[in-house]
Amino acid sequence: xxxxxxxxxxxSPDDVFCQNCGYRLKPAATSTNEAAAxxxxxRPEPQPAKPEPTPTEPKPAMTAPAPKRNKRRKKRSHKKAxxxxxxxxxxxxxxxxxxxxxGKYSKSKQVDDMVTAMHDNDTAATVNYMTTTDPNLDINAKxxxxxxxxxxxxxxxxxxxxTSLMANxxxxxGTFKLVTKGHHLLVFPDYKLEVVAxxxxxxxxxxxxxxxxxxxxxxxxxxxxxxxxAGPLFxxxxxxxxxxxxxxxxxxxxxxNLVSTQSKNIKVDLSTPDSTDSSGSTNQAADTxxxxxxxSSNDSNNSDDSTPSDSNYGHFEEEYHGDEQAxxxxxxxxxxxxxxxxxxxxxxxxxxVLQVKAYNKDDxxxxxxxxxxxxxxxSSQLDESSGKFKE
Length: 391
Prior knowledge:
alpha+beta; 5-stranded antiparallel β-sheet
């Protein structure tokens, strides 16, 4: 162990300075070399050059994102397939619904259902098919009963109704009109039959006589020229009657088919003839049964029968249908008179030949007798003096 020449303290051979007094133990040259060595040690060491990748080696930065893009494409393709499947299913459902509705709710199918319900006397279904613009007309099973009764007497009405509704959306007599009330399945019209309400005016010369319609008392006359406006009534067959209370010695009964717009404000005359017997008592007037059947007429078809019976003055033109109504219209056109001014008794003296007796609607006086040849479209009038028909 060496000692410091300055202070005599022990020093190590490797020490440059004395640790006790700081005396330099090694010469300055050695310090300079070491300083140079220290400076060289403080310089940054050169980094080794990175080897260049070979052309066959894939670059990590370029190849890493590729798998993510493939996953996104797969997800997008899967979602697109799901949407296409949903759209196809919706289209199939809509197409199936449309074809189902087109068959079930077509105009012809709904009209056929209406006519079938009336033909089968299905009151509930018939009520459901009916509507009206008259707020006072109550459509129910009771109010349509006269119409169902009328259908039993006129078997051809429903066939004409079906044909007319399909062609013109209303019946030939104008009583029923096909209208739309809402929609089925938001697309197909829901059809109803809009009906015209009837308001007949009843007249009687029987003072204090009750007036009934289909057996139901509706008014009582308070003078001998009484008039009562009935209604609203659902179209149909109605019996109007006036009679003297208790004794029923004098009565008048008329049955009318109110199934035409021309019958809406029809006048029903329940007046009785002012005739008395030798004792001064009033004779009973026979009931009248005005219907559309050919058999209802008491006409004997003899050309010399120029006066009607007291109990039957015929029907109004609008109460007839088909060939009979067409024959009356043709005669009125030929001879230039208003068919509303008369009532008529219709008969068929020959096949395809219609005979019409006309009576004044106000006083029931006989006017004339006509015939209409359907085949040749020829109208003729009875010559009362010769008893022959002349064109």
